[in-house]
Amino acid sequence: MIEEIEQYLEKHDFRAFTPKVVLFDMDGVLYDSMPNHAIAWQKAMQLYGIHFTAADAYATEGARGVDTIRLYWRKQKGEEITEERAQEIYDVKTNFFHEMPTAPIFEGVIPLMKKIKSSGLTIGVVTGSGQRPLIQRLVEDFGEFLDEEHIVTAYDVERGKPNPDPYQMGLKKAGNLQPNEGIVVENAPLGVEAGVAAKIFTVAVNSGPLPDSTLSQAGANMVYKTMAQFCSDWNLFNK
């Protein structure tokens, strides 16, 4: 057993690591979509008088969109925004995003899913997005490995990442599994924090501009540079 798994078991006082589901984040993990999201966020926020940078988009990645809007509205406007107004801004951001070229699937994702399926594990997706076209694309692109019953969206939980709720819901949808029966695959600090808060072994794949240390400090049990590297190591997790 690899050292990181031993440390994980000791930290949470689990007797064994017996993964039955792999829970992937979507943006920045399955799809190289974060550059498009960053542009869409900046354009939408600017329309409503909110200063929002590409770095802000990466820093808040994984959170529910309406929660990100609430946070920045509160910080810069000094007041709370209504649910309806936040949803309106999120819808504008969504429209900007869908005007952009389709984001490609990251290299290594399909081979990794094939290995996971061959290992007899379930595959799930846990995303802070609530955009129906994106959910439909997941089913179309990964239908060989994934069904909609195993997708957690922003509308499945009241509290988004970095709270543990989204990944706890992922375990529930996979068959009411325990934390030591799952693996989380993330790329952003808030998502890593959510996986760690849910006590699930969390692998970070650093597909963005943040340093690896940011993901390690968020609690990631392991950090990879690419999905292809994680794919090549899959057998370490399937013993």
What do the pLDDT scores average to?
A: 94
Strand order of the largest sheet: 3-2-1-4-5-6
How is the quaternary structure best described? single chain
Question: What structural class is derived from the secondary structure elements?
Answer: alpha/beta
Shape: globular
What is the strand content? 5-15%
Could you tell me the radius of gyration in angstroms? 17 Å
Residues in helices, as a percent range: 40-55%
Task: Write down how many β-strands occur, each being a DSSP E stretch of 2 or more residues.
Answer: 6
Total count of helical runs of at least 4 residues: 11
Helix/strand order, N-terminal first: HEHHHHHEHEHEHEHEH
Q: Cα distance, first to last residue?
A: 8 Å
Note the main sheet. 6 strands, parallel
Q: Give the low-pLDDT segments.
A: none
Can you tell me about this structure?
This protein is an alpha/beta fold and 239 residues long. It contains eleven helices and six strands. Strands 3-2-1-4-5-6 form a six-stranded parallel beta sheet. β4 (182-186), α9 (189-197) and β5 form a beta-alpha-beta unit. It starts with a helix and ends in a 7-residue tail after the last helix.
Tell me the layout of helices and strands.
Layout: H1 3-12, E1 21-24, H2 34-47, H3 54-59, H4 65-77, H5 83-98, H6 109-118, E2 122-126, H7 132-141, E3 151-152, H8 165-173, E4 182-186, H9 189-197, E5 201-205, H10 212-217, E6 222-224, H11 227-232
Parallel strand pairs: 1-2, 1-4, 2-3, 4-5, 5-6
Helix pairs in contact: 2-5, 4-5
